[in-house]
Every structure is written in C-alpha cells, then in structure tokens.
Write a structure and sequence with these properties.
The chain is an alpha/beta fold. It contains 15 helices and 15 strands. The protein has a three-stranded mixed β-sheet, covered by helices on one side. Helix 2 runs antiparallel to helix 14 (367-380).
C-alpha cells in the first residue's frame, strides 16, 4: 500500500453568497451584503486544484452540500420574511472550506493501522453546524473501505470541534508515523474560541493515537481576538516543517520545545511580528496557505494573491527564499471569492494521507473530471447572487438544479 497526501478541496457551491454569518471571521463580516459570484468562485477553486494536480500532487474534491437545506429550515421553522439570518444559514455554501470537514489521523499513527476520520460538529455557528450529516455521508462514501478507513460520528455537541483547521501533523514523510498537534482555544475573549480542548482530546482517543505522539496546544487568545478564528489562519505544518506566526500560540517557546522533543528533526520557521504584524498576517492569510511537498522533494507554499501583493509579506517571503530554509517555492493563487468570505487556500482543502487506490475514484480529480466539472459550472452555476435574493423560489430552483447536474455528471446521484 502506497501512502501519499491527497488534498481534498471543496468545490464552491452554487449558493455561494456573502451573508456575513461568521462572528470572528473579519473578512466574512466585512463583505456582508455584497454581491457574490458563485461561478467565478467555483472556477477559481478548480483552477487551484488543477494547478496542484499539474505539479504532480494527488488531488481530490468534495461536492457542495444540498442548499438550501430544507431539513434545517423545517427544524427551525424559520419565517422567510423575518428570520433573515436563519434563512441565510440554510443557504450557506461554507462547506467549501473542507479544512473544517473532519480531523484526520493517517494509518501510521493509529492503534489499528487504519486512517481515522472524525466529522467536525461545527457547533459554534448555526450555518456550519447543519453541515455535518451531509459531510459525513460524503466521507463514508469516499472512504468506504473499512479495512483501511474508520469514519467516526461527531464529537458530542457540547464540545466545539472545527476539524483539521485546528490540527497539524508533523513527520519525516507522510507515510511514516507522525506527531499530531491539536490546537484549542479558551473562551472569554472578544470572539468565540471555536475549538474546545476536550473535543481535541476526544478525537485523539477515538483515533487510537499514541499519547506520546500527541500534543495539545493552546492558541494565543490575542490571535483569536485579532481574527484568527482557526489555528490555520496563523500556522501551518507539513512533514518536518512548522511555518508559524510569532503570536500563533499562547506559549510559543514551550510549544516549539515540545515539538522538538518529540520530533528532533523538526524545522520551525517563525515569522516575527516585527516583520509581518498579526493583523497583516490575518488580512492577507499568509499562513492560511498550502504547505506542500512536491514530487521533486522541494516544499512549496501556495499563498493567496492578497499575501503576494502585501509589501510586508512579500519582503519577508523574498528574504526567506534567498536563504537556505526548507520552503523553496512560493506560488500565489487567485481565490478572491473565497477570501472575501474568509477562507484562503488552506481553508479550501482537507489533507488525507492514504493510498489513492483505496479511495472511491469518483472523488479523485483527473484532467477529464476537471473539464467535466468546469463545463457544469460554466453552464449551471449562477453568475452572481445578491444576499437579498436568498429565500427566493427562482434562485432556489437554479441552485438545486445546478448541484443535481453536477451529481449526474460525476455519477454521484446517491448524494442527491
């Protein structure tokens, strides 16, 4: 069995809109009420997937969830005339940020030698809590082979769990045993701490991880207050490398020491606040990047164009590349539609270390599949959506039809 890292990106759904539902996500709330462009958003995300695939990386995808969510609307008995935020929640396309879909522990790390996946409950926000039943359906379909995968039920909803956006894994190579780092927040600040410590500990126990190969780390409360609603807004890891802002963790030096104790080969690349302020790091999503190992063995950082265009960020990155550090390439990508709603390149993907031959092939991207998806998006995705139109029968017809056309094209009608 050949284990590789597969990045599963969420395809931006046809109901993509800017309703500003995510408290603590500064980009999302700043663009609330603006017109969105679902077709452009989906094509931008697909272009990022294609770019990674063309570099020789394994690439998968997940499908948009059913929207509007009629089950959710029935449960909350929302009034379309008065309950605007609840109606908008039922239309949210936020499942495109698959970093929040689940937490993944690869087979080399687990007691039973299977890859374990726990769907995130996302209980902190109503527009996201509704996602998990349909997300779990996709996980159980894509990773159906129980000899190699174990898909768990969500953590009890009294413990907030936001998935892989608050989880990092470090190792010598993806197929070897690794160190799993769970990052949690503490409540009581300006914005809610979405990842609870107990949720992280429950996931670690459920996955059968070796306690000596696990760390539980507190996120810096100042980072949460500044808009780093998930750890992946201020830190990202890949194999032996941790790329982090100086203010990402409550106890940075203690965190680095603990990592080095458990993984002596670790390389920690710290961006000081004096070079890139916490506010600028969050605004540009420098750390909400994909840190990837290319087939050549080089590490590349896939960053949003917003980061590449920032003078402070660009100056620091140029100096990094001029040195002899572990990150050798920086590749900007245009995901502006996702960025305006608060999600960068890392938000759009879920990392799964597995044998691609054991994954349902309908969820793996190929050049022909990419062409097929692009054709469906071009023909059926709405060109734009004004949040004021959410709840309208005409828009609902367009959104439902677009998703069904995609399921038909991909032979995934069981997700209808």
């Amino acid at each position: 069995m050949t284990l590789v890292e597969i990045n599963f990106d969420g395809l931006v759904g046809p109901s993509h809109n800017y309703a500003g539902l995510s408290l603590g996500n500064l980009a999302a709330t700043a663009h609330a009420g603006e017109v969105s462009y679902p077709k452009a958003a989906a094509l931008q995300g697909l272009a990022k997937m294609r770019g990674n695939m063309e570099m020789g990386l394994a690439q998968g995808f997940f499908l948009p969830l059913p929207r509007p969510n009629r089950r959710f609307l029935d449960q909350i008995a929302a009034d379309v005339q008065t309950d605007h935020a609840l109606i908008a929640a039922a239309w949210s396309a936020s499942s495109m940020w698959t970093a929040n879909a689940a937490t993944i522990s690869p087979a080399p790390d687990t007691r039973d030698g299977r890859c374990h996946l726990t769907a995130a409950n996302l209980v902190t926000m109503a527009h996201r809590f509704q996602e998990w039943p349909d997300t779990a359906r996709q996980l159980r379909l894509a990773f159906a082979d129980e000899h190699y995968f174990a898909v768990h039920a969500i953590v009890p909803a009294c413990f907030g769990d936001e998935g892989a956006a608050n989880h990092m894994r470090m190792c010598l190579s993806h197929g070897e045993p690794g160190l799993e780092i769970f990052v949690y927040g503490k409540p009581g600040g300006r914005f809610p701490a979405r990842q609870h410590e107990q949720a992280s500990r429950i996931v670690a126990r459920s996955h059968g991880l070796d306690p000596d190969k696990v760390l539980f780390v507190e996120q810096n409360p100042d980072a949460i207050a500044a808009g780093a609603f998930h750890n992946d807004v201020v830190a990202v890891a890949n194999e032996r490398v941790l790329f982090t802002h100086e203010l990402a963790f409550a106890d940075p030096e203690g965190t680095y020491a603990a990592i080095r104790e458990k993984l002596p080969e670790a390389e920690i690349v710290v961006v000081p606040a004096s070079s890139v302020s916490l506010a600028e790091a969050i605004r540009t999503y420098l750390f909400n990047a994909q840190l990837l190992t290319l087939p050549t063995g080089e590490m590349a950082l896939i960053i949003p164009t917003e980061a590449h265009e920032s003078p402070a960020v660009r100056t620091w990155l140029d100096a990094m590349l001029a040195g002899n550090g572990p990150i050798r390439r920086v590749i900007p990508v245009d995901v502006k539609q996702s960025m305006a709603n608060g999600g960068g390149p890392a938000c759009l993907r879920l990392r799964v270390v597995a044998d691609p031959d054991r994954v349902d092939s309908r969820f793996l991207l190929t050049p022909s599949t990419a062409e097929m998806i692009a054709a469906v998006v071009e023909q059926w995705w709405p060109a734009q959506i004004d949040p004021a139109a959410l709840g309208s029968a005409a828009l609902e017809q367009d959104v439902v039809r677009a998703r069904l056309r995609l399921l038909e094209a991909l032979n995934l009608a069981e997700l209808a």
